[in-house]
Design goal:
single chain, 457 residues, alpha/beta, five-stranded parallel sheet, 28% strand, globular, binds flavin-adenine dinucleotide
Length: 457
C-alpha cells in the first residue's frame, strides 16, 4: 500500500525532511507531497542580506534546489499553495491554490509541519505601509532588493532599521553598501540584544564606523505615511526620515495552523515536540523555526530560529517519519554573524540569561589577538566567558573581532555542550601556528581568567 507523507513548508526543515524520506522510501512505497505558499523552495534565507547588498547578484544563486529539481527527485512539490487548515480527525488538509483561489482537500498518513517563522510586526500606526519590510522568505528578500534597485537615487536615500537583532544589522550593512543613509532604532542600550551590552558596544562601534546612525534606548512608536508609503519612523525622541524601513525585531513561530488544529503549542508560541520531533498528535511531526526546542543549559523550552537547527531537525523528521529512530538533542543558542568589520559570535547563556535561569554566574572578558603579534594581519578579538561560580562549568561565551573570531566560538560551543569547566577548557589541546593564533589562543586565555573568577567565593 502506498502511504502519503505531506509536508507543509518548502524550505530548510520541510525539504530536508522530504528529501531524507525519499532517500529511505521509493515512490512505490511512499508518495511525498510538499505545499509551499511562496514561489521558491530550498532557498538560503541566510543569504538574503548578501542579495540585498549586491554581494550576490541573483536570487537564483540562493536556491539550493528549485521545485523542478525536487520533482525530478520524486517529490510532488506544489508551490503557491497555502495550507489553510489541518483536520486531525479526518487526517486531511485544506489547501488553497493562490493563483486561482481554488481550495482542495488533501489526505495524509504522516504530516510534517515546517511552516517556519515570521518577522515580529508590532501593532503600531503605519506599520502596514508600503516600504516597511519584514524579511524572512526569499520573496521578502527579492522585494526589499527590488525596492532598493528602484530608488531614483540610492545615494542619500534613507533607510531605518527598527530593532537591532542580527538580521536587522546584516541588512543595515547591506543597505550601507548600496549607498543609503542608514539609521538603527533600538530600545535596548546596545544593538544585538542576544549579546551582553559590553560586547554589543563593539558591534555598535562597527556600525558607527560605516556611518550607521544609532538611536539606542529609543523605542519605535509608529510610522509616518504619505500616499500609502512610509516616509518616517517615529521614536520616543523624534522622527527619522525613511524611504525604506526594515523590521529587525526578531521572529515568531508560524504556529497558528497548529494551534487551530489542536496541536500542543508552548508559551514560546513554538509547537511542542518530543526528542523525536513528534507533536502531540499521532503521525504528525514538526521541525524548524516553528517548533520549540529544549535548551541544554537551562533545560527549558526555547525558540531559537536558526537554519542550523532547521536542517538537523528536518533530517531527523525525514528519518523518523519513515520508521527510523533519530533524536534531536536540543540547542545551546550558538550563532555567528558578520556585522561590518566584525565577526560576532555567541553560544550558551549570556550574563543576563544566566542570571534569569537562576545560575550564580561569573564572567571573564579578555582582549586578545587573532594571530601571533609579529605575524601580519593580526587583529584584536574580544572573548567573554560566563561560568558557574564554584565548579566553573562554562555556561556561555561571546566573541567579537575581525577575521578568525566567529568560528572560534565552536570550541566554546563544544565546551558548553559537554558541560566542560573553565579549568578543563584552559588546558585543552588547541592548534597553534603564528598565522592562526598566538601560542595562547584567546579562548584559552579567557578560559583561564574565567576559571580564576569562578574560584572566588
Ligand atoms: C535574513 C536572514 C538571515 C539569516 N541568517 C542565518 C544565519 O546566518 N545562520 C542561521 O543558522 N540561520 C539564519 N537565518 C535563519 C534561517 O534562515 C531559518 O532558521 C531557516 O530558514 C528556518 O527554516 P524553516 O524551514 O524552519 O522555515 P522557513 O525558512 O521560514 O520556511 C518555512 C516555509 O514555509 C512556508 N509556509 C509557511 N506557512 C505555510 C502554509 N500554511 N502553507 C504553505 N507554506 C507555508 C513559508 O512560505 C516558508 O517558505 C536567517 C534568516 C533570515 C531571514
Amino acid at each position: 500500500v502506498t502511504e502519503r507523507l505531506v509536508v507543509i513548508g518548502g524550505d530548510a526543515a520541510g525539504m530536508s525532511a522530504a528529501a531524507q524520506a525519499r532517500r529511505r522510501r521509493d515512490a512505490g512505497a511512499l508518495e511525498i507531497v510538499c505545499f509551499e505558499r511562496g514561489a521558491h523552495t530550498s532557498y538560503a534565507a541566510c543569504g538574503i542580506p548578501y542579495l540585498v547588498g549586491d554581494v550576490v547578484s541573483s536570487p537564483d544563486a540562493l536556491v539550493a534546489r528549485n521545485p523542478e529539481e525536487h520533482r525530478r527527485l520524486g517529490l510532488d512539490v506544489r508551490t503557491r499553495h497555502e495550507v489553510v487548515a489541518i483536520d486531525l480527525d479526518r487526517r486531511v488538509l485544506r489547501v488553497r491554490a493562490l493563483d486561482d483561489g481554488e481550495e482542495t482537500t488533501e489526505p495524509f498518513d504522516q504530516l510534517v509541519v515546517a511552516t517556519g517563522s515570521s518577522p515580529v510586526r508590532p501593532d503600531l500606526p503605519g506599520i502596514d505601509a508600503d516600504g516597511v519590510f519584514g524579511v524572512q522568505t526569499l520573496t521578502d528578500g527579492i522585494a526589499l532588493r527590488s525596492a532598493v534597485d528602484a530608488l531614483d537615487r540610492p545615494d542619500g536615500a534613507h533607510a531605518v532599521v527598527v530593532g537591532g537583532g542580527y538580521i536587522g544589522l546584516e541588512l543595515a550593512e547591506a543597505l550601507v553598501q548600496r549607498g543609503l543613509d542608514v539609521a538603527l532604532v533600538e530600545s535596548g542600550p546596545q544593538p544585538m540584544p542576544t549579546m551582553d551590552p559590553d560586547m554589543g558596544a563593539h558591534v555598535a562601534e562597527a556600525l558607527r564606523d560605516v556611518g550607521v546612525a544609532l538611536h539606542l534606548e529609543d523605542p519605535v512608536a509608529g510610522f509616518d505615511v504619505e500616499a500609502g508609503h512610509v516616509r518616517g519612523v517615529r521614536t520616543e525622541s523624534g522622527v527619522l526620515t525613511a524611504d525604506i524601513v526594515v523590521l529587525g525585531l526578531g521572529v515568531r513561530p508560524n504556529s497558528k495552523l497548529a494551534v487551530d488544529a489542536g496541536l500542543a503549542v508552548g508559551s514560546t508560541h513554538g509547537i511542542v515536540v518530543d526528542e523525536h520531533l513528534r507533536t502531540s498528535a499521532d503521525g504528525v511531526f514538526a521541525a524548524g523555526d516553528c517548533v520549540e526546542s529544549r535548551h541544554r543549559v537551562t533545560g527549558k523550552p526555547v525558540v531559537i530560529a536558526l537554519g542550523t537547527h532547521a536542517n538537523k531537525q528536518g533530517r531527523a523528521v525525514g528519518i523518523n517519519a519513515t520508521g527510523g529512530d533519530v533524536t534531536f538533542p536540543g540547542v545551546i543558542g550558538t550563532a555567528v554573524s558578520k556585522v561590518c568589520k566584525y565577526e560576532v559570535a555567541r553560544t550558551g547563556l549570556n550574563e543576563r540569561e544566566a542570571a534569569a535561569a537562576g545560575f550564580d554566574a561569573v564572567a571573564a572578558t579578555i582582549e586578545g589577538e587573532t594571530r601571533a603579534h609579529y605575524y601580519p594581519g593580526t587583529t584584536a578579538v574580544h572573548v567573554k566567558i560566563v561560568a558557574e561560580r564554584g565548579r566553573g562549568r562554562i555556561l556561555g561565551a561571546q566573541i567579537v573581532g575581525e577575521e578568525g573570531a566567529a568560528k572560534r566560538v565552536d570550541v566554546l560551543a563544544a565546551a558548553v555542550w559537554t558541560e566542560m569547566t573553565a579549568e578543563e577548557l584552559a588546558s585543552l589541546d588547541l592548534g597553534y601556528a603564528p598565522p592562526f593564533s598566538p601560542v595562547w589562543d584567546p579562548v584559552l586565555i579567557a578560559a583561564r581568567k574565567a576559571a580564576e573568577a569562578a574560584r572566588v567565593p
